[in-house]
Amino acid sequence: MTSIGATGLKLGPGHGDPEQALAALAKVELVISDCDGTLLYTDKSLGEPAKEAVRNLTAAGVRFTVASSRPGKGMHSIVETLGVQSPFAAFNGGKLVDPAGWKTLNAHWLPRDAAQTALESLERDAVDAWVFIDDQWYITNPGGEYVPLERRTVGYDAVVVKRFEDIDLDSIEKIVASTKDAALLQRKEAEFQDTLKGRAMAMRSQTYYLDITHPLANKGEGVRELARLAGVALENVAVLGDMGNDVAMFDVAGVSIVMGQACADVQSHATFVSATNDKDGFAAGLNGLLAARKGK
Questions:
Q1: Domains in the chain, ordered, with CATH?
Q2: pTM (predicted TM-score)
Q3: How do 237-241 and 209-213 pair as beta strands?
Q4: SUPFAM superfamilies under this entry (predicted)?
Q5: At a CB cut-off of 8 Å and minimum separation 6, what does 196 contact?
Q6: What is the DSSP string of 141-157?
Q7: SS3 of 91, please?
Q8: What would the pLDDT profile of 69-105 be if each residue is shown by its tens digit?
Q9: Contact status, residue 178 vs residue 146, Cβ threshold 8 Å
């Protein structure tokens, strides 16, 4: 792959018309970015290059917002630091939030039977499960390997319960399966995509996290709704991401920019490939967009 024009970005596999890709990039009016693994470094920090790139983007008249698998409360710091004024998507698009007053605009809950099926299966395979209801997350194993990471990611503690049956299973917005056994998690993803088909989505947001949400709680639907709220045609939306759960938004947006560390399959869905997130691939993506606008 070779860099395209002054953007510094590489054309994604399967996107063979650089002129068409550049033209689409130059007319973007709304940018929607994934957070973990894209906007943020791997250590979950927000770098100065990313902050500056967002400032330059908004100064150029292009709106910016975010879409994440995180709960809304876990996105507050990012939204406030970057001065996001447009609605944003939490829970992989399962909840839309207006930062003006932090009002919920729309939400999707897992069907109870799907939640029970997933939780019982995870318990059988001794995979840690977390349940998210609104901005709260519930766990049964406080010693779980990834609990400290999630606490640092979302910025607050979980509620420990003896069993998930003790909470309201009709109000679940997301279940997360977490394990360091990446192969097992991949198998659980395939299992749930079969057993929960039509009732829930199951997609990994990290190699160690598997998100289970309502069928409409995906980033593709989230991007559609965010674009509608902004009054921007999907062809004039650019999205940035790095994982399989970002492919749904790659497939609906006019332009997609994938981080360099993404696997080959995810890269194959993107218009452009940037540097890795830890090498400021997010900032490079926005800077490439701005360069394309200047050259149009």
A1: 5-107+218-295 (3.40.50.1000), 112-213 (3.30.1240.10)
A2: 0.88
A3: unpaired
A4: HAD-like (SSF56784)
A5: 114, 117, 118, 202, 212
A6: -TT-TTHHHHHHHHTSP
A7: helix
A8: 999 999 999 999 999 999 999 999 999 999 998 999 9
A9: yes
